[in-house]
Specification:
This protein is of the alpha+beta class and 593 residues long. It has 19 helices and 28 strands. The strands form seven sheets. Strands 11-15-16-23-20-19-17-18 form an eight-stranded mixed sheet. Strands 1, 2, 3, 7 and 8 form a five-stranded antiparallel sheet that branches. The protein is globular and about 80 Å long. The structure holds one RNA strand of 76 nucleotides.
RNA sequence: GCCCUUGUAGCUCAGUCGGUAGAGCACCACCAUGGUAAGGUGGGGGUCGCCGGUUCAAAUCCGGCCGAGGGCUCCA
């Protein structure tokens, strides 16, 4: 974790104790903001203003759009209100009194009507402003710090979140106990911006998207492809080690396949439209499952053949809504690190345990240690017998408990075809991302009438488990870029070593070193441009290359290399062998530099 | 879909009151041969997102369209 991330999470920990107080502060800030806005726009209609994570907002119906200058004016007025030491006074009033008091505020009247007959109606007054409010609030604006809040943005928001309702203007703000905490939070926001994978993807020349060639479709540049290769090679090796087989399946399939699987029934909106050929309809695959099933069905299966663990880096296409697309995180074409496990009911428990253990191992390998599980159980509308659901859900719970990871249960939150576990990791600055998913599927084995012949000669239905460890390679790559802020550990770095000759006279020696590194399996590039050495170092540094070998007169004379690390440290006068073995050890360990 | 912001060179951005475009980086050429984060000089490159309107004149003003970013799910 880097400094900003560390500072912010320490600050977060301290804050936990003050959570209740902060909520009062934030909620009170919202009221102060409403007062300030009403000073500027006396006819404003005010809606709601709750405390939220890290801050607060308030929704207004205003005669015109707010701009930057307005935020400054509102901020200045808020500071004045805070400094005037107003008390927050709570009182309980009757429904009629409330209606009279807010007779010019149509949104408030709606809210009053929504309050249960039995419950009391309370208002809070802070001098110049009275709001219909359940509370709680601070005692007085004395408890608010005029230098510990900041208005962040204005956004459109529908009244009560409904598209058919009028669009209000929502002002978001952040508020803290003291200016130092505010500073930490603002630094954290700046850090998030610096880590943005879309920005780093451009700066580090990793990938691009081309709206004119199709939105949501990813182009992997050579440097991004290097990282993808490193991920995929590791992924394949580990899958073989863990008892999986690799398969490859087609990218399109006839409508028969999608009708049988049911996708044309319940998933059609997310599928690219049909391609007609010889009076038959083909569809690009949005999922790999039906194809894996075709292989399963290719021959009669015995209990002796199970479990089948078949993995594929399968590229699928889904028509995500335009507004939902976001860099690498939400795309229309992506590669799932997919696998399907077909097993007997007896094997199911052990398979689930193993899948979870394997998932955790993979996530740890990529530097993710803070992992939380979410188990989703049977929803109201579902397929499959109750006993199967129970057995599968229990197996999922046993597995997370055995691995000792914390988990939440989302009752009724599963897909209609089976229960699942999702694993969420926390990245270097504490943000959660969902990566792994392990899902039971009681639907497809039924639809495709999958069977295996059991010991007693009878045909039985196998369990089918669908799992992805990294989720999608694109999304995982996006998360990795943000997690490492572009400074990948050596095993993933697109260029591991930059060989930098001090002057042209060292070019040949540098080329020799580069060639030797390449032959030894390292990703090395020498910089033979006419730039000065300083500029070459700067460029390598900007591309976040972990190792720079500086080659000049001294090194040529002694037959050595001088190493400059990405973090600015330096090791001079190493032999090639010393450097290469240290580099290899670092790569094998998958450690960060 | 709706609200706000936004679209100028490959990238990051400037362009005042309307007078048909600029900088830095990158790229190319030449000079410089330099020891730990930018050496110098010169050059090429833009139908200012698209369509229409106002005007003698539009990157700039007006209207429409398209794209991108943030938000619309924290509930008196």
């Amino acid at each position: 974790m880097d400094e900003a991330g560390k500072a912010f999470s320490i600050c977060r920990r301290d804050i936990m104790a003050d959570e209740a107080k902060l909520e009062k502060i934030r909620h009170s800030m919202a009221h102060v903001m409403a007062e300030a806005v009403l000073e500027i726009f006396p006819d404003a209609q005010i809606a709601i203003g709750p405390a939220i994570d890290n801050g607060f907002y308030y929704d207004f119906d205003l005669p015109r759009s707010l701009n930057e200058q307005d935020l400054e004016d509102i901020t200045a007025r808020m500071k004045a209100i805070i400094r005037s030491n107003k008390e927050f006074k709570r009182s309980v009033i009757s429904r009629d009194e409330a209606k009279e008091m807010f007779k010019d505020q149509k949104y408030k009247l709606e809210l009053i009507d929504a309050i249960d007959e039995g419950s009391e109606i309370s208002i809070y007054n802070q001098g110049g402003f009275t709001d219909l409010c359940r509370g709680p609030h601070v005692e007085s604006t004395k408890e608010l710090n005029a230098d510990a809040f900041k208005l962040l943005s204005v956004a459109g928001a529908y009244w009560r979140g409904k598209e058919t309702n009028p669009m209000l203007q929502r002002i978001y703000g952040t508020a803290w106990l003291n200016p130092k905490d505010l500073r930490l939070y603002l630094d954290h926001l700046a850090d998030i911006e610096k880590r943005d994978h879309r920005k780093l993807g451009k700066e580090l020349d990793l990938f691009s998207l081309h709206e004119e060639a199709g939105p949501g479709l990813v182009y992997w540049h050579p440097r991004g492809a290097r990282i993808r290769q490193a991920i995929e090679n590791f992924w394949r090796e580990e899958h073989y080690k863990n008892g999986y087989e690799m398969i490859y399946t087609p990218h399109v399939g006839k409508s028969w396949l999608w009708e049988t699987s049911g996708h044309l029934g319940f998933y059609k909106e997310s599928m690219y439209p049909k391609m007609e050929m010889d009076n038959m309809d083909y569809y690009v695959k949005p999922m790999n499952c039906p194809f894996h099933i075709m292989i399963y069905q290719n021959s009669k299966k015995s209990y002796r053949d199970l479990p089948c663990r078949w993995a594929e880096l399968g590229t699928v296409y889904r028509y995500e809504k335009a507004g939902a697309l976001h860099g690498l995180m939400r795309v229309r074409g992506f590669t799932q690190d997919d696998a399907h496990i077909f097993c007997t009911p007896d094997q199911m428990d052990a398979e689930i345990m193993e899948v979870l253990r394997f998932s955790l191992y993979m996530l740890h390998s990529f530097g993710f240690d803070d992992i939380h599980a979410y188990i989703s159980t049977k929803p109201e509308k579902s397929v499959g017998e109750q006993e199967k659901w129970d057995a599968a859900t229990e197996a999922l719970k046993r597995a997370v408990e055995k691995e000792g990871i914390s988990y939440d249960v989302d009752e009724g939150g599963g897909a209609f075809y089976g229960p699942k576990i999702d694993l969420k990791i926390k990245d270097a600055i504490g943000r959660e991302w969902q990566l792994s998913t392990v899902q039971f599927d009681f639907n497809l084995p039924e639809r495709f009438k999958l069977t295996f012949v059991d010991k007693d000669g009878s045909e039985k239905r196998p369990y089918m488990i669908h799992r992805a460890l990294l989720g999608s390679i694109e999304r995982f790559f996006g998360v990795l870029i943000e997690h490492y802020a572009g400074a990948f550990p050596p095993w993933l770095s697109p260029d591991q070593v930059a060989v930098i000759p001090v002057a042209e006279s060292a070019n040949d020696y540098a080329c020799g070193i580069e060639k030797r590194l390449r032959l030894d399996g390292f990703r090395a590039k020498s910089d033979l441009s006419s730039d000065r050495m300083n500029a070459k170092i700067r460029k390598a540094q900007q591309m976040k290359i972990p190792y720079m070998l500086i080659i000049g007169e001294k090194e040529m004379e002694n037959g050595t290399v001088s190493v400059r690390y990405r973090n600015g440290k330096q090791d001079n006068g190493l032999t090639y062998e010393e450097f290469a073995s240290a580099l290899k050890a670092k790569i094998d360990s998958k450690e960060q530099l």
